[in-house]
Amino acid sequence: MLAGLSGRSVVVTGGAGVIGSAVSRRLAAEGALVVVADLDGAAAGTVARAIGGDAVGVGVDITTPAGAQASVDAAVQAFGKLDHYHANAGVECMVRPVADFDPADYHRVFAVNVLGAFLSAQAAVRQLVAQGNGGSILFTASIAALMGSGGTSIYNASKHAVHGMARCLSLEVANAGIRVNTLAPGVVESRMMDSLGAGLGTLTGVDETAFKGGMERAVPLGRYATPAEIAAAAAWILSDEVPYLHNECITVSGGIAPY
């Protein structure tokens, strides 16, 4: 068992998604008290019931201050406290060249990926500081936060923003004993990656299967990650196994070098 998770209260936003649900399950397996928070409250409840035990599902819109606060309140109401917060909710962009991007898609992606992450962290920090017992906050960014790729400028920009925000927050809350880190997955078996892959395949003139094959060949380990592998990294970062890990961006990319 990972230190510092058993009996600890953890919120996972985007908790009904592929990665979020995997993280929620892994944290619960480590003994954590999990709040599965998602815009789709019914799906969040389904994940929580599948986990069983003390897991709670809640529908929240983290793009609003009230929704972000509600994710924290759910943990406090259910478990009496908040110990860890995983700001994981995110959406992909349409795959387009910069010249062809619709500003509406920019606003949609930044509302969830950047504003939502900011408001979630704001609510979590206020609660953790008030409790006075430290804690940890983990943002899900992407390897896209560390590199560029044609056709996904808005998504990459949003994840760069998340990475930068985490770096700033980590300096603000360290003296309160709150650790802040960023998780940057590479390519993962997920609906989001399928969507991006289909769009990038179209943009580059290859079908989705051929595009995925090319991506797998570009990964030194030769395959996409499973959600469970990303969840294992998230649990480790949130835990007390690495109490000196702070202001870091941890890539889980199968060996893709972002620099």
What is the number of strand segments? 7
CATH architecture of the largest domain: 3-Layer(aba) Sandwich
> Mind telling me the CATH superfamily name of the largest domain?
NAD(P)-binding Rossmann-like Domain
> Which shape, going by the Cα principal axes?
globular
- Mean pLDDT value: 93
CATH topology of the largest domain: Rossmann fold
Textual characterization of the structure:
With 259 residues, this protein is of the alpha/beta class. It has 8 helices and 7 strands, in the order βαβαβαβαβαβαααβ. It has helices spanning 18-29, 41-51, 65-79, 103-131, 153-173, 191-204, 208-218, 227-238, and strands at 9-13, 33-38, 56-59, 84-87, 135-140, 178-185, 248-252. It has a 7-stranded parallel beta sheet with strand order 3-2-1-4-5-6-7, sandwiched between helices. Strand 1 (9-13), helix 1 and strand 2 (33-38) form a beta-alpha-beta unit. It is globular, with a radius of gyration of 18 Å. The two termini are 34 Å apart. The relative contact order is 0.15. The mean pLDDT is 93.
In short:
With 259 residues, this protein is of the alpha/beta class. It contains eight helices and seven strands.
Secondary-structure topology with pairs:
Elements: E1 9-13, H1 18-29, E2 33-38, H2 41-51, E3 56-59, H3 65-79, E4 84-87, H4 103-131, E5 135-140, H5 153-173, E6 178-185, H6 191-204, H7 208-218, H8 227-238, E7 248-252
Parallel strand pairs: 1-2, 1-4, 2-3, 4-5, 5-6, 6-7
